[in-house]
Write a structure and sequence with these properties.
This protein has 263 residues and is an alpha/beta fold. It has helices spanning 16-25, 43-55, 66-78, 82-89, 99-107, 121-127, 145-153, 171-182, 194-206, 210-219, 228-236, 250-262; strands spanning 7-10, 29-32, 39-40, 60-63, 94-97, 114-116, 134-138, 157-161, 165-166, 188-191, 222-225. A five-stranded parallel β-sheet has the order 6-5-4-7-8, sandwiched between helices. The two termini are 12 Å apart.
């Protein structure tokens, strides 16, 4: 049991109990501290966006999550747009971020033309050498102004679609997490999405505690990311070392921690 006596905070709430079970099987103790709020769908916005890209097809479709596309397909079908939406996917070139999104499209019988297999927005940006194009960009609850600005600077017209939106976490929960970090209670903090990183660091910056938290994460508490996208966001915030599994899965993340401490 590689996590014997290790105390690990997990900032994801949606699969919190599942992760707790995995950590406890390795002998550790999990503290579920959700750093993001409820995810909800703005259905009217999504349906209107789907209608728009059907009536005015872009020259390129960019998808950042398979789950987001699945939600778009569900809403298209429920609103009588299923067939024209599926036809759109099979006639317009597609670029995707990440292997999970790639596999999602392959299961639909669609092979995207451009794939950022590492799953980061930076890699996706570098994979796209396009200009003067009409682009529809599907995001997952969070804006990416730098990526969009780069596309627009190349004279591309970008339309964004947000199948999911996030709400901020409960401040008391994030406050508790910070207190546990400062008190020396925790051995590691595991972030399971990039949005959690943003909300967490927005909180500590607002409380003027960023330097303290970065010192802890860089020297005493092990920062863990479920995948490269989350790792990228942690490093952008100043975290210098991040433990990240080679496969972006919850189980792989727990096993990576276990192997780390066994060494």
């Amino acid at each position: 049991m590689g996590l014997k006596d290790k105390r690990i905070a997990v900032t994801g709430g949606r699969k919190g109990e599942e992760i707790r079970t995995l950590i406890e099987k390795q002998g550790g103790k999990a503290f579920i501290r959700p750093a993001q709020g409820t995810v909800f769908t703005n259905e009217a916005h999504v349906v209107q966006s789907i209608q728009d890209i059907i009536e005015n097809p872009p020259q390129l479709l960019i998808f950042t999550t398979g789950m987001g596309e699945k939600r778009m397909a569900e809403l298209a079908e429920a609103n009588g747009l299923g067939k024209p939406y599926e036809q759109l996917l099979r006639t317009v070139p597609i670029a995707v971020r990440g292997t999970k999104t790639l596999q999602h499209f392959k299961q639909k019988g669609i092979t995207p033309g451009t794939v950022a297999d590492r799953g980061t927005m930076n890699q996706l940006e570098h994979s796209l050498a396009i200009e003067d194009q009409s682009i529809a960009l599907q995001m997952h609850g969070e804006n990416v102004p730098t990526f969009i600005k780069t596309l627009e600077q190349a004279n591309n017209k970008v339309r964004t679609i947000y199948p999911y939106e996030h709400t901020p976490p409960e401040e008391a929960v994030v406050e508790q997490l910070v207190e546990e970090m400062e008190s020396g209670l925790l051995d590691a903090v595991a972030f399971t999405s990039a949005i959690q990183v943003r909300y967490f660091f927005d909180y500590v910056e607002n409380k003027k505690k960023k330097n303290t938290i970065l010192s802890l994460l860089n020297d005493e508490i092990l920062p863990v990311a479920v995948g490269e996208v989350t790792e990228e966001h942690l490093k952008e915030r100043g975290v210098e070392r991040v433990l990240t599994p080679t496969t972006p899965r919850m189980g792989a993340m727990v096993m990576a921690m276990a192997k780390y401490y066994q060494k």
